[in-house]
Amino acid sequence: MARIRKSQGSEKPIQKKIVWYIALYIRLSKDDGSDESFSVTNQKKVLTEYVENFFQGKYVIADYYIDDGRTGTDHDRPDFQRMIHDVECEKVNCIICKNLARAFRNYADQGYFLESYFPLHGVRFITLGDPKIDTYLNPEIINGMEVPINGLMNDRFAYVTSSNVRRTFDTKRRSGEFIGAFAPYGYVKDPSDKNALIIDEEAASVVRNIFQWFVYGDGSTEIVTDEEGTEREVLKGSMSKEGIARKLNEMGIPNPTLYKMKKGYRYKNPHAKENDGLWMGTSVSRILKNKVYIGTMVQGRQRVISYKVHDMVNVPEEEWYQVDHTHEAVIPLELFEKAQGLHAKDTRTAPGKTEKYLFSGFLKCADCGKSMTRRTSNGFVYYNCSTYKRKSKDKCTKHTIRLDVLEKAVLLAIQKHIELVENLEVVLNNINQAPVVQTKTIWLEPLLKFRERELEKLEELISGLYIDWKNGDITREQYRKMKEKFEQQEVQLKENVGHIRKELGIISGDTTFCNPYLQTFLENKNIQELSQGILAELVDCILIHENGGITIQFKMENQYKCLNWTI
After folding, report:
1. What is the total count of domains within the chain?
2. N or C of the chain: less Cβ packing under 10 Å?
3. Candidate from 157-171, 215-229, 477-491, 535-549 with smallest mean pLDDT
4. Which of 507, 524, 549 is the last residue before a domain boundary?
5. What's the mean pLDDT in 460-482?
6. For residue 363, what is the enclosing H or E element?
7. pTM given for the model
8. Closest CA relative to residue 541, chosen from 517, 560, 518, 557
């Protein structure tokens, strides 16, 4: 604690024997520009010099309270709040700052604290600049005109500054200039132009695979048994958002927040400390919906309520700033649109599976237009009208259809649909729109080597622990705890390495692999099995009739010159 002393000043002596516990408050914001007189260092020097040479009375400097980079239009500043807490705990009874604007740029806050809060808690308030205030030596100054007028001018200054900054930002948004503090995942700011984005290939490769997996699947296969008991290997379907998140976590790929932190970016996020580095379905969903990946700059999704109320509110989409072709796209437009089409459908995931149900989001009742609900009975899967099943049996009928019957009918209809296409190259071009997955090797192979090096280092650490224990460098208990911790990390790393090797194995020998169904299509000139990728490519929806009939509404009918199929 600082010494208690009586300073030698030129002011009139204070009669009461009071020990003043002083809080020296300092604030600096971006609005102050490059004015050195407002720097934290300068303010600290001026305040300290005043206390040591001019403050009259016995005092203790309780602490310095510094809000660097904080606006003065609200009092919800970390160190201002800490100072107020110390006032209430009676650790502080005197506050000194350079001028009124350092403490307040909000006229209402200034009036509340100077006229109500500080007098109620017996706090002496001092400013060194004009107007010079000392509520202990000259309490009447608060009731004069100078202090309120100065506060009003500070308030108006904050409003004008906020308006000018907002106009500047809106101008930049309209022209497609990026104004965020951190580039979206998959991009970095251009070193030569902070308002432009360039691709971060390492993260962009992850983004490409997220879209690929969501629309077409990851190319992995599974063994299925048909009605005759014959086993065959088939491609798995497109993956759910939760399934994609699990796959990324299994491979040890950090989520966007952890990725930025590992890259050394000074990434600030109020929830960053709570982030465990794992992917979630919601983070995958945000990526899948973000137009930035097709080269469109989208900004202004949120805004502050006002220059005094800094809470963020969502902005209607029609008021967003969207500018096309501002930067290089990561995802082809066609693939992005297919992902949005799947988003609009009900894409539930089979229990314990990463891929979605085959017909999730495609089936509708032909009469009421509502979705079909799935149920299992006696080893078979059925679909029924959701209105009949869940709401009222009087409003619609069952519209029952068995899954295996539906699969055969839809596959046959699609095969016939493709046979009638006049130009088969049109279909090939439309199917072959997924990004080339050879980019996987750009990030998977270095990632595998990195994880393998981590595993080697960890194994060396575990081996060295035993020697450290035997040499007496660590205790038995320390050895046990450290060994247990390292072994847990070793298990996790081995799992990560295994999943990465498996992913590389899927694409080995076929570095031009695009759509996982394209090779089969090229060989047979038609579709041999159904998948969500194929349905998303060709089918808009499937209507189920009460008599078991189905109507398939195909996409791009004018281009293919085909009508809807009713079976």
Report:
1. 3
2. N
3. 215-229
4. 507
5. 80
6. strand 363-365
7. 0.59
8. 557
